Amino acid sequence: MTKSPQTGSSILVPRRTLLKGGAALGLGSALGMPFINRLKAQESHPLAGKSIEMSILGIAGWLPSSLGVKMSPLFADFVKDKYGYDVSFQFQEAPFADLFQKAATSLVTRSQEFNIIISDSQWLGALAQPGWILQLNDVIDKNPALNIDWYSKTVVDTYMIYPDGSGDIWGLPQEGDVEALFVRKDWLEDEKEREAFKAKYNAEMPRSFEDFEALTMDEFEKIAEFFTRPDEQRWGFAQQYSRVYDFATCAFNNFLWSRGGQLWNPENGQVAGVLNTPENAKSLEEYKRWLKYGPPGSTNIGIAEGIDVFTQGKVFATIQWAAVGPAMITEELKGKVLVVPPPKHTGPSGEAKRIYSMGGQPWVINKFNDEEKMRVAIDFMNWWYQPDTALEFAKRGGNPCDKATLSRDDFNDINPWNRTFKFMLEDGRSQDFWHDPKYSEMLSVQQEGYSAFVTGQATDAQAVMDYIACAQQQILYDSGTAKEAPPDMCAMTSL
After folding, report:
1. 97, 258, 442, 447 from 468: Cα distances, Å
2. Residues near 453 by Cβ (< 8 Å), separated by ≥ 6?
3. What's the rounded Cα separation, in Å, for the pair 107 and 52?
4. Residues in contact with 28: Cβ distance below 8 Å, sequence separation at least 6, in sequence order
5. What is the tens place of the pLDDT at every residue in 67-125?
6. How far is CA 237 from the centre of its chain?
7. How is 295-349 classified by DSSP, letter by letter?
8. Residue 487 has pLDDT above 50, yes or no
9. What does residue 432 show for φ and ψ, rounded to 5 degrees?
10. How many other C-beta atoms can be found within 10 angstroms of the C-beta atom of residue 215?
11. Residue 370 exposed, middle or buried by CB count within 10 Å (0-12, 13-18, 19+)
12. Which of 123, 262, 279, 379 has its CA 20 to 30 A from that of 170?
């Protein structure tokens, strides 16, 4: 009988250059006392006495992906002691923009080249629909350790379920991720700056997590304006506008959702009339308007470029993924950075709220694994979600998603971004988009449109939204997801 996992209270770039500062991501923490509970007697296991080689496919240059393999010797010790078999792992990788194609090219041949894959959350449909990955409902039923109390329903909806709302489980959270506001604490606490700000705006600059939690974009704009000083090669704010992978889309979604808009109706696949509303066109204009507070070249900012402008001291604040916290807070910046919730937006209704894009990746298991490799993959999942493993993952810079780990008294103090990660992971503050198998085609059209507008190639926000909505409606209608064909007005749309 299929059942859904429990929830708490009821994630191109080549993220390649992503990490030009590779040293900043090489967080290796030495283990002190071993956290593996060694058993005096091994449990009976079908792989006892065997040696198995496994392969994980993940994201090149992305710390959380590599941690799965960097921590694998701990898993090898665990299964050797508990089950009596030997296992080794190799890590295959690709830049984020190429990862899906690398996985698909292998899986379409029913290959066991990659036994476990770190997938982007939006790829669940594209991997599940052809029958390439293992549905996990029965696995969870047979492995109580995987029936986990997750921190929020958002975790389940983002990393585990396809189709949305179905209860069919295809992934388990590998790395949770949310968007956070990284600010220069040392600039913020400079008393001369605070006095100058108060004199100019008759207001106090925020200091604490709680201050930023209450902050609206209107209030934050004064701070961004205050620190925008081109003569000093300083600017107030950076966010992602790049056409690469999903960068502009994730950044613009923050404006669209927080101001009351929607991308589509997932129940019937309707995009036309949902995405291209006048209100959403105004949100696109607002998104572009914030370029005035960014450094030159801001329309090319993606993850790597956002890291660069912040760590080089060019900007006061930037919205960035919590997963790249280790790269954002270099040795030189330790103690000088505050990681806080990003500002609330005020929409046409007058209500101020924040709904930002989810990032992060789930584990998925190759359905074509032979019996031995499938058993190791499931053993690995059981081990990955043990409390000691999840805690070690967090200590090395990862973001686990289980309620038990995130509820620890010391969790907020493990990494500077942990408190904000928890805050934004709560239901209603972050959300994912499209798990539909046509995700990549939908995204390509959207990135094309948003990039054209922010770079000035297109000047009419409403026309851009109409173009995207019509193209996406056609994609979903052709695939059978959308019930209605694009409306007649779509014959006249263009960028």
Report:
1. 21, 20, 9, 9
2. 284, 288, 459, 461, 464
3. 20
4. 70, 396
5. 988 999 999 999 999 999 999 999 999 988 899 999 999 999 999 999 999 999 999 99
6. 21
7. PTTGGG--HHHHHHHHHTT-EEEEEEEGGGHHHHS-GGGTTSEEEEPPPBEE-TT
8. yes
9. -95, 175
10. 20
11. exposed
12. 262
Kindly report the length of the chain. 495
364: Cβ contacts below 8 Å, ≥ 6 apart = 116, 117, 118, 119, 124, 127, 133, 134, 170, 171
Q: Transcribe 396-437 into DSSP letters.
A: TT----BHHHHTSTTHHHHSTTHHHHHHHHSTTTEE----ST
Q: Which amino acid is at 425?
A: L
C-alpha 313 chain-centroid distance: 25
Q: What number of other Cβ atoms are within 10 A of residue 74's Cβ?
A: 16
| Residue 346 to residue 40: CA distance in whole angstroms | 60
Task: Name the phi and psi angles at 171, rounded to 5.
Answer: -140, 165
Which DSSP string corresponds to 424-492? HHSTTTEE----STTHHHHHHHHHHHHHHHHTTS---HHHHHHHHHHHHHHHHHHHTS-SSPPPGGGGG
pLDDT at 58: 96
Task: Name residue 113's amino acid.
Answer: E
Query: Which two structure tokens, joined as six digits, stand for 305?
Result: 């470029």
Q: Does the pLDDT of residue 196 top 80, yes or no?
A: yes
- What's the CA gap between 447 and 432, in Å, rounded? 16
**Is residue 301 within 8 Å of residue 239, measured between CB atoms?**
yes
Helices (H) and strands (E) in the chain, counts: 22, 11
Radius of gyration of the chain (CA): 23
Q: Select the more confidently predicted residue: 30 or 348.
A: 348
d(CA 254, CA 344): 9
In 3-state terms, what secondary structure has residue 21? coil
Residue range 179-357 forms a domain whose CATH class is alpha beta
For the chain, the domains span: 17-177+360-431, 179-357
**Percent of the chain as helix, strand, coil, to the nearest 5:** 45, 15, 40
Q: What are 258's two structure tokens?
A: 């927080």
**Number of CB atoms found within 10 A of residue 275's CB:** 23
Peptide bond into 362 cis (omega under 30): no
Q: Do domains 17-177+360-431 and 179-357 have the same CATH topology?
A: yes
Read off φ and ψ for residue 231, nearest 5 degrees: -65, -25
- Write the single-letter amino acid at 73: P
Nearest to 120 by CA among 56, 55, 59, 54: 59
Which CATH number does the domain 17-177+360-431 belong to among 3.40.50.920, 3.40.50.1000, 3.30.70.20, 3.40.190.10? Answer: 3.40.190.10
